[in-house]
TrEMBL record, chain A:
This is Glycolate oxidase. GO terms for molecular function: FAD binding; oxidoreductase activity. It comes from the Bacteria. Its cofactor is FAD. PANTHER family: GLYCOLATE OXIDASE SUBUNIT GLCD (PTHR42934:SF1).
Automatic annotation (TrEMBL), chain B:
Keywords: 4Fe-4S, Electron transport, Iron, Iron-sulfur, Metal-binding, Repeat, Transport. Its EC number is 1.1.99.14. NCBIfam families: PRK11274.1. This is Glycolate oxidase iron-sulfur subunit.
Length: 477, 435
């Protein structure tokens, strides 16, 4: 295993008390809620950032907020690190544990508590999957807008931790723009509520602070999110280009003209081939790059928006324009796009970058990305939220070849630095996790990082919550 | 994902295959969301990703199976919902097959578990024994709640509860001679008579024969065919499974050579998935590899075959059918549309219950060996089906029919029974009684 990224060394005092800790946890929770046998811990050693793995001390799977609070109170007193886990789909290693940590999994808290259409809100437990919220309200004509590609599996708690985005966030905003309130367990077991069903709350916007805090400020156990009425109609349209550069500059022009489609997704040739192999969505295989542009509204509205987009695309040499003809076809187009990362497993192992750049730099960064990856002798597939400038180069490698794995990581770091240097940022939606932690200095000055850590310390002075993540290990208070 | 097997380990073709399967997994976690046991239990150890990881750890370390691994692999329904969901194409079916064989070879189960498994393997695949057992079960049925109260006897209790209240008459078809077509001949097929289905509901194959011959299909009667082996295959008893498979391959190939077969029709989709896998199961047996692959190509679910016959469109009738898609059909064989299209063409109104991808909990002997999880899945399934307010439920697998039928008052039939009725056959008794 390549180990360019370090974890905090485990606290010997915690490791030494392992048996006592487990028996204490078994006193706090029913036996089926504590996983502690050595073999049974293995599946919890990593998430979807699978290059790094650490066995946790134990895993707890509480069933309600009171149990979460009991565990936090105990761990706080005993000085035991806690790593929260939703569905374990993090691409930045946000849910990877460490040897002295207890994994606090929210998978058993997966109940929808209340649907309130008068206020257009849903209140759910943190372990509810993103998609199941939209499914629960679909027949009543509503949906929950942020739609990470892993929405089938990822949980709302994880979405809050990483301030997750998704294809449709171009129009509707990311998690923070759709989150109205949370119930959260603080590090010492105190339960607090932030926000509510209203659009704003008195005092500091702590809800905004919690969203994207990567499980370092507390454990969110319930969330109230905004529901949105489904549009009259929605139509994804495929635009094929000869080159990635043409497609990239077309995106910048669409947004620059003032049009905000619901989604503009980008796939280069390798990505198109990968997704087509899984979804058989009918993506054009004879183009160099593809944009999936979704427009929505009434028929007339969609036609008008689409006409303007087609006109812009023509100026950028669009080769094929294909409107999808049925709901089944539309579903397949999105299924293919949303399964892109997993489907990449058909041809290679990969790590997925998450840099975000100003749209004017999209073509430049795409070109430079290819050069970087080529320099390392590797291949890349690009599939990402182009309308947001949120890039996802998938660097392909062979995980059984340690040298190649190390090269992939180095190439990834260079790409992320490139994004920052182009005026963008390290992460658009996947979070810093451990993956991008050591690059934070490239993005922020020491003073800026120190300020963030000061805020963090107000919630968790002893670095117990997800401690190996987000902030570089050196220079911590 | 990364794997670490030694070259010596990889010399074992089973390990080599599993290594290839594991390499495809990128640990994305999509599979957890559609796994019935993860959805029910909320523990990653009871999800495909968790099991893949447990299997990987066990195989890489060349370790005998232990209680922890066995518990979580045993809870897998083999519904293969994860295979439908998996974007990377991880062949979970063959991975878990390998794990089950490894468990069977390296783990000594507690005595009660061993006894019940031996009993199932010795009775279910043999129609005469199964029929006799059901007669006994009828007498013992009142003791089911008592048995279910004792932990080690719970499977026996579950088994008794599943036994039909009234024994069906033995089929006269399975052992009979070939049946000629009733219209101009369009093809010739064999129909798997199988093991449990002709005992539990002989009417299914009788309806199949009526329907097929009416449309010009000749029914061949291969000699010596029987249980497909799925039942013991899913218990990891590979030698016994392969013996069943070889016997069936011989029976069908003799028929292929004698009169030719256009298809081997399977009306129990659980068996269909296994027969379609004979080519893989016997790939390492030089004497059978080729023949088994041929049999797998010929094997067709009844609805898959009927879809090729272009049955005439019938006028709409006032009967709403909730179509329950058996896991072995939708996930195992990837057959989703043909049964519904056939029912619609035959004039029925077809409803898709919510959460159609989730297993009903039948899963071969699962409802006997894992009755608690199975019962939870059954309630969830029945609730979703009843919400569509159907007049009748249709399914393509006897296991699902028995399982769902034990949880609802709505009549449940095999898809082919409704089709046979629509195209001129007698009205199924289950509907006549209810309406």
């Amino acid at each position: 295993m390549s180990e360019a990224i370090q974890f905090l060394p485990p606290r010997p005092s915690v490791l030494a008390r392992r048996d006592t800790i487990i028996s204490d946890l078994l006193d706090l929770l029913p036996p089926e809620c504590v996983v502690h046998e050595a073999r049974a811990l293995v599946p919890f050693e990593t998430d979807a950032f699978i290059s790094y793995r650490r066995l946790p001390l134990a895993v707890v799977l509480p069933k309600n907020t009171a149990q979460v609070a009991a565990v936090m109170k105990y761990c706080h007193r005993a000085g035991i690190p806690v790593v929260p886990r939703g569905a374990g789909t993090s691409l930045s290693g946000g849910a990877i544990p460490q040897e002295d940590a207890i994994v606090l999994g929210l998978s058993r808290m997966s109940r929808i508590i209340e649907l309130d259409y008068a206020n257009r809100t849903a209140t759910v437990q943190a372990g509810v999957t993103n998609l199941s919220i939209s499914e629960a309200v679909a027949t009543d004509g509503f949906f929950y807008a942020p739609d990470p590609s892993s929405q089938l599996a990822c949980t709302i708690g994880g979405n809050i931790g990483m301030n997750s985005g998704g294809a449709h966030c171009l129009k509707y905003g990311v998690t923070t723009n759709n989150l109205l309130g949370v119930k959260m367990v603080l590090v010492d077991g105190t339960v607090i509520e932030l926000g509510g069903k209203h659009l704003d709350a008195a005092g500091y916007d702590l809800l905004g602070l919690v969203c994207g805090s990567e499980g370092q400020l507390g454990i969110v156990t319930e969330a109230t999110v905004r529901l949105i009425a489904k549009p009259e109609g929605a139509r994804p349209v495929l635009f094929g280009f000869d080159t990635s550069e043409e497609a990239g500059s077309c995106v910048a022009d669409i947004i620059g003209s003032g049009i905000i489609p619901v989604a503009i997704e980008f796939m280069d040739k390798p990505a198109i081939e990968i997704c087509e192999a899984f979804a058989k969505a009918g993506y054009p295989l004879d183009v160099g790059a593809l944009l999936i542009v979704e427009v929505e509204g009434s028929e007339a509205e969609m036609d008008a928006t689409l006409a303007s987009i087609v006109e812009i695309a023509r100026r950028h040499g669009v080769k094929t324009v294909r409107e999808c003809q049925s709901a089944t076809e539309a579903a397949l187009i999105w299924k293919g796009r949303k399964s892109a990362f997993g489907a990449t497993g058909r041809i290679a192992d990969y790590i997925c970058m998450d840099g975000t750049v100003p749209l004017g730099k999209l073509s430049y960064v795409l070109e430079e990305t290819s050069k970087i990856v080529e320099r390392f002798g590797l291949r890349v597939a690009n599939v990402f939220h182009a309308g947001d400038g949120n890039m996802h180069p998938l660097i392909l490698f062979n995980a059984n070849d340690p040298e190649e794995a190390a090269k992939a990581e180095e190439a990834g770091n260079e790409i992320l630095k490139l994004c920052v240097d182009a005026g963008g940022c390290l992460t658009g939606e996947h979070g810093v996790g451990i993956e991008k932690r050591d690059l934070m200095r490239h993005q922020y000055s020491d003073a800026e990082l120190a300020q963030q850590m000061t805020v963090r310390a107000a919630f968790d002075e002893g670095w117990l919550l997800n401690p190996s993540k987000v902030f570089p290990l050196e220079g911590r208070a | 994902m990364q794997t670490s097997f030694t070259p010596a380990q990889l010399e074992d073709p089973h390990v080599a295959e599993s290594e290839k399967i594991l390499r495809r997994c990128v640990h994305c976690g999509f599979c957890t969301a559609t796994c019935p046991t993860y959805v029910t239990l909320g523990n990653e150890l009871d999800s495909p990703r968790g099991r893949i990881y447990l299997i990987k750890d066990m195989l890489e370390n060349d370790r005998p199976a232990d209680e922890e691994v066995v518990t979580h692999i045993d809870r897998c329904l083999s519904c293969l919902s994860c295979v439908t969901t998996c974007p990377s194409g991880v062949d979970y079916m063959h991975l878990v097959d390998h794990a089950r064989i490894h468990i069977e070879n390296t783990y000594k189960r507690p005595l009660p578990d061993r006894l019940i498994r031996n009993l199932l393997a010795a009775v279910l695949p043999y129609p005469a024994r199964f029929r006799a057992a059901l007669a006994l079960a009828k007498i013992a049925r009142p003791f089911a709640p008592l048995l279910k109260g004792i932990r080690v006897l719970k499977p026996l209790g579950a088994m008794l509860e599943l036994a039909p209240k009234s024994a069906k008459r033995a089929a006269t078809v399975a052992e009979s001679d070939a049946v000629p077509p009733k219209a101009e001949k369009r093809g010739r097929v064999a129909i798997l008579s199988g093991c449990a289905q002709p005992v539990l509901d002989p009417e299914i194959n009788v309806a199949t024969i009526r329907l097929l011959t009416r449309f010009g299909i000749e029914i061949a009667a291969p000699k010596g065919e029987g249980c497909c082996g799925a039942l013991v295959h899913h218990m990891g008893r590979e030698e016994q499974a392969l013996t069943f498979a070889r016997r069936n391959v011989d029976a069908w190939m003799a028929e292929v050579e004698a009169g030719g077969l256009d298809a081997i029709i399977v009306t129990t989709s659980g068996c269909g998935t296994t027969i379609k896998d004979y080519g893989h199961m016997l790939r390492l047996d030089p004497a059978y590899a080729e023949k088994a692959a041929r049999v797998s190509t010929l094997a067709k679910d009844i609805t898959e075959y009927l879809a090729t016959l272009d049955l005439p469109k019938l006028e709409a009738q006032k009967l709403t059918v909730a179509y329950h898609s058996a896991c072995s059909l939708q996930h195992g064989q990837k057959i989703t549309m043909p049964p519904k299209t056939l029912l619609k063409t035959a004039g029925f109104t077809v409803r898709d219950p919510a959460e159609g991808h989730l297993c009903c909990g039948s899963a071969g002997t699962y409802n006997i060996l894992q009755s608690e999880i199975s019962t939870q899945l059954k309630s969830r399934k029945v609730k979703n089906i009843e919400a569509t307010k159907p007049d009748v439920i249709a399914a393509g697998n006897i296991g699902c029919i028995t399982q769902i039928g034990s949880g609802t008052e709505i009549p449940i039939l095999h898809t082919v029974q409704l089709l046979d009725w629509a195209y001129g056959g007698p009205k199924p008794a289950a509907i006549s009684q209810k309406r």
